[in-house]
Amino acid sequence: MTFSVKRFMAIFQKDLKDLYRNLYVSSTALMPLVFAVIYSRVGEVPLAMYLFVITLSLALVGTFLQCAIIAEEKEKNTLRGLMLSPATLTEILAGKSAVTIVITIIVTAVSMFIMGFSFDGRGWLIAGILLSLIFFIALGTWMGLITRSVLEASVYILPVMFIFGMANMFIGLADQFSFLQVLEYTPGIQLEEIANLGESGAGFDELWKPFAIIGAWVAATLVLAAVTFKKRMMD
Amino acid sequence: MIEVKSLEKIFGDKQALHDVSFQVKKGETFGFLGPSGSGKTTTIKILTGQMRQSSGTANVFGVPVSKLNTPEYRKRFGVVTDNSGLYARLTIYDNLKLYADLYGTSLQRIDEALESVNLGSEKKTQVAKLSKGMTQRVLLARTLLHKPELLFLDEPTSALDPANSKHIHNGLKELNRQGTTIFLTTHDMEEADHLCSQVAFLNKGVVQLLDEPKQLKKQYREEIIGIELKDGRELELPLKASSAEEIQQYISREMVERIYTKEPTLGDIFVEVTGRELV
What we know:
Organism (chain A): Oceanobacillus sojae
Shape of chain A: globular
Radius of gyration of chain B: 22 Å
Strand content of chain A: under 5%
Protein name (chain A): ABC transporter permease
Largest sheet of chain A: none
Membrane topology (chain A): Multi-pass membrane protein
Number of domains of chain A: 1
Shape of chain B: globular
Radius of gyration of chain A: 18 Å
Keywords (chain A): Membrane, Transmembrane, Transmembrane helix
Number of strands of chain B: 13
Distance between the termini of chain A: 23 Å
Oligomer: heterodimer
Strand order of the largest sheet of chain B: 6-7-8-3-9-10
Structural class of chain A: mainly alpha
CATH superfamily of the largest domain in chain B: P-loop containing nucleotide triphosphate hydrolases
Order of helices and strands of chain B: EEEHEEHEHHHEHEHEEHEEHEH
Number of helices of chain A: 11
């Protein structure tokens, strides 16, 4: 398998330039900053609230941005052009994902800065966030491949937002609505688990479980996205 | 360059291609002619690895089309279809720069490719502001960037006015002279006549005729000489020695406005062979 850095960079630069001019998608991706500003004025904020904004950033930026970028390529018949060029599947997906990764990290970091949250001494949490980011981007890639337009992507993103982006908020209702207990296995809740274990000074013998659950989500969505992409390459 | 044998494509209960066979030699401009829905685009999709055939073999550059999805092979061909797209928010230059980087060609080629489609002065224009004809020309320029050995063109001038069509035709002829093999689908018989060294008539997924345009015209020519007289009468005489004396008389009496042979167009031949109009 070949990987050309030049082709990867060409796709990355094109997507960055295109996104800069796409007001609808770029303004949606900045939504977590609004939440960060609101929560920064609340005063004392519990750890769960920081995790809520982090997970929201991952879902709204990581998943929606990736989904919208790919859905628009399909809508405007530009993805086929890329697929007929020398760029490989890996280069195309890596170039697009790199844009999403950079913007997600910037939005998440700025949100936490606004809320006054420090990542110092929270290496486990950073590792968990980066692992979760792969899941959210793979999910966005798959959703971009199954939707036909940016408008359709905007509708499909809603359940993802509720299930994966706001799990940290809805889990509080699990005592009243038992079906919500399934949210305990979402990456957002697992991130909260990592953060809490990290705060209590736990080691990897306790931390492996949330990492394994997020890892399982990553593996499942990566396979789903790759299989769907290969299928969509052919008419 | 292209070798197709007994190619079949079935979509559900509809057979789009029936036992299609043809060869395209290096340096040829091959016209695949037929009306909408005859299977032209399906053939291009199979030949460029975008669709799998149901049966039969299709080789490009001497390898099965299923092996074309490597960067090395993709650098050797280019495709323009009627639904190829551009990035509307970016300029023409930015669109072409992406592909110049993907194909590893110099940025100087962008200017050359744009000149060849008569868009040299428009490179800073945003694609969203282009007409359909200009968009089609940018797509063509994008495909010419890497000087492909083999060029697949699906109705390349369908959205263009006659002046720009002529410009594109001249560009394609020059490209062909430089060695690029061209596989062209069109329903414009004049275009095919002007550009192609060999044509295949495709009707309902079947290749009904395959030959050089010159040979086809010779084969389907009516053996008649037409004479238009100055008094408005039109005469048709057999193309035989016996007509010579009669023609000479009209000429010597200065009665002749115009003399012509009745050579069919490719469109006429298509209608005669398939019984269908090219729409």
